């Protein structure tokens, strides 16, 4: 039932966006270009070096592609959480509280950044390229992983988005902080975790489970051992990590909304 | 329908003192507010800006959790049963929209139908009624962003009624509307209250709203209830004077010694007289015949005190 409402809300938003068709198409293209520009940066980087953190150019592109696709999907579904400060400031959030639905679901359904589909398409193209230029140990499991990894990654990113933006319930101008974490984790996950220092690595790998978005799944796809000595299992548990992240995000959101209703604006 | 006992709500404000120091202090926005509203009533909740009206409304609708006190709306505790309550009440905020900005009005209504799970026949009936009475027909397919404020407000009210609420809460519903739109909206709300028995609670700065819609008034200032009662009684209590304005055929002097008249004011060289009298001392009829005995009356009108005046005096009385 709730899903039907969600589908309806999203459908309505799409119709709204489609009323500016040309602008919509241009935005999609811009998003795809933005996505692929980041790929160019990696390629330029590799014209000067032959390996980054122990990984070849195609291996890095694989990580980048998984992370980029995951981020694109997350941005599409959860990106409008960026609007939370506006919602709080203008009192629109109160309107959400007047409806018989959960606030997080309504927030997510309040808009669907469909133009980010450009980003997803760009990511998938990069992924196709990376898969054909790497020596993938193909099996039913790795094939499944190729599909599951970007989706789990998207859930992880979305969870990060929820937690980071929930800060705005305490600090209304906490947006900058939230952006650092959301967009920052995208930048982090696009490169092999090995290039970062140990503390940053631990933080992004386990506190914010960014390493599970692309790094560990890529290792599994490439059938490579973790240069940092992590067990091979880590490459396969992204869905579990994603589920855990989603639960944590849900709890944080609930606490945040409770705080809001207790303290008000 | 609504039961409020010793309702209190505090906010913690942080102010900067010096570069890093922050001072916290607590502000009581609503303090020991109590009132009851029975099903079918229409009550105006008035007070100056910052009096605590919106905070009270937010607690009644489940947006805010009270610091202390007891609230029951439609039989449930709003802060605990927010979603349950949402299905039973309708809320209209004059200053924030619950419609979808770039969708036609019709699509917003359809979304709300899905959100509130309104059975289609009920939805159709209610929508048709609102469309007829509020004349939404001409702009039902216009995106909300292109509607005038008056049109949008009619849409907002419809949106709040589609799930058939037993209580409609309106927070400054007529703010910014032109006279005609205000009148149309008031007419609709009055009919909703009398014909369908929907309970109304509305906050407003426009006291004409109250005059038109609400037999009962709850006046709040600085978080506490100053007065609660029928408009007429409040008026008799704090503003017992009425004014008889008479236009005479010929300029006349010396109407200030009529029995029961407290003050007089003369205009148009003695053609028009404003005679202030207390309703306890004399009646309008007695006064009119007293005037007629002295001069030929061309026209007359009895002016009740402005409701602003009533409220202003209530504020001043504390």
| CATH topology tier name of the largest domain in chain B | Rossmann fold
**What do we call the CATH homologous superfamily of the largest domain in chain B?**
P-loop containing nucleotide triphosphate hydrolases
Structural class of chain A: mainly alpha
Helix content bin of chain A: over 70%
Count of helix runs of chain A = 12
Find the structural class of chain B using helix and strand composition. Answer: alpha/beta
| Tally of DSSP helical segments of chain B | 10
* Mean pLDDT across all amino acids of chain B: 86
Content of β-strand of chain B: 25-35%
- State the end-to-end distance of chain B: 29 Å
The CATH C-level class name of the largest domain in chain B = Alpha Beta
Write down the overall geometry of chain A: globular
Mean pLDDT of chain A: 85
Level of helix content of chain B? Answer: 25-40%
Whole-angstrom Rg of chain B: 24 Å
In the residues of chain B, how many domains can be counted?
Answer: 2
Rg of chain A from C-alpha positions?
Answer: 19 Å
Largest interchain contact = A-B, 25 and 34 residues
Q: Main beta sheet of chain A: strand number and arrangement?
A: none
Number of domains of chain A: 1
